[in-house]
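Weekly puzzle thread! Below is a chain. First person to post its structure in C-alpha cell form gets bragging rights.
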Amino acid sequence: MLKRIAGVLAGIIVCGVVIFAIEWIGNQLFPSTAEAAAAGDLSQVPTGALVAVLVGWFVGPLLGGMLAAHIAERGWAAWIVAAFVLLGVVLNASMMPHPTWMLVLGILLPIAAGWLASRTARPVPQAVA
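Winning reply:
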C-alpha cells in the first residue's frame, strides 16, 4: 500500500515540475505572456504561449502518470495524476476566461495522457494455482 501511495505522490510531483518547466519555456519564448496572464486577459496572450500550456497539460500527466503507474504497479495510479491536472484545469478556468478550444483540449489532453500512462503499468504477477 505504501508503494502505491509513494507512486502517486511521486507522479504528482513530477507532473507539477514538468508542467511548470514547459510553461516557463513558453514564457521565455513569449515574454509578454506573464503580464497578460497575470492580468487575467488571455485574449492578449499569443496562441503559441497557450499551446505551450496545453503541451504541459499533456506531457506533465503523461510522464507523472507513467512514473506513478511504474512505482505503484497499477494503471489507476496514472489516472489519479491525470485527475489532479483536470482539477487544476477546471480551477484555472473558473478563475479566468479561457478560449473554448483551450478548455476542450485542456480536458481531453490530460485524459489521453492518463490513458496512455496507465497502459505502461507493469503487470502484477498472478498467483499460480
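Puzzle host: Confirmed. Bonus trivia for everyone else. The chain has a mean pLDDT of 89.
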